[in-house]
Amino acid sequence: MKDTVTIVTGGSQGIGRAIAEFLAHKGGxxxxxxxxxxxxxxxxxxxxGRKCMFCRVDVADLQAVGExxxxxxxxxxxxxxxxxxxxxxxxxxxxxxxxxxxxxxxxVNLKGVFSCTKAVIRHMLKTGGSIxxxxxxxxxxxxxxxxxxxxxxxxxxxxxxxxxxxxxxxGIRVNAIAPGFxxxxxxxxxxxxxxxxxSRAIPLKRLGEPVDIAYLAYFLISGYGSYITxxxxxxxxxxxx
Length: 241
Ligand code: NAD
Known about the structure:
Layout: E1 5-9, H1 14-25, E2 29-34, H2 39-47, E3 52-56, H3 62-76, E4 81-84, H4 99-127, E5 129-134, H5 137-141, H6 147-167, E6 172-179, H7 185-188, H8 192-201, H9 210-221, E7 232-235
Parallel strand pairs: 1-2, 1-4, 2-3, 4-5, 5-6, 6-7
Helix pairs in contact: 1-2, 1-9, 3-4, 4-6
Bound molecules: nicotinamide-adenine-dinucleotide.
């Protein structure tokens, strides 16, 4: 990861934070795009002697994302990798789902991936690069109460494969990770009974840790993943196989 610059969207907490910290641990510099403060991630990355830039930007805002990406290139010299990780939920059964629940989840989770990828690809055309999109088990197998979220995450899979086909010849690899249930603020919202039931249903008998996703993100963007593109890799303790 030496001499690499990776943008991690939603890097202030949860899975994004674990990815940013693990990549820094491996020697890479980081730029975080988030709508909330990322002080803990920034401090952790800098404590490892790596550079960390923070951009307060809504990934769904195409113009703001373009400006933020240009700033990263100006300040850090290049963009080697992009981790499209920012995401939200707004769960309801379909009959109760409001238009705004649908629109906002699609805007952040799917349009956000479009905005960030489009903005970095321009720079990666000259240098090559690697993009990892964080989809979800919900996008692969569906989930009651998450029609909006599952649609956004399934959309990411089609997007990943299309962009991998478009830019493979330019040395740009694009892959997706579909995490199962990972312990973060997003899953804290579930009650204890649901978490227990979930753990029982998982062959490995536990929820995942954010770093379980970080290990694979590192593998994919590093030289170890150099012949992998257009893939969707499940990391879910065997819940879906
Ligand atoms: P989280 O809520 O802990 O972190 C999400 C981060 O994204 C936060 O820092 C948040 O501020 C940021 N974010 C939200 N909206 C944004 C926006 N418009 N612009 C920029 N940043 C924004 O969630 P997490 O569990 O760490 O999830 C990270 C990703 O992994 C998400 O895409 C999520 O859908 C996906 N995922 C999570 C799980 C899980 O079990 N936790 C499972 C499958 C997929």
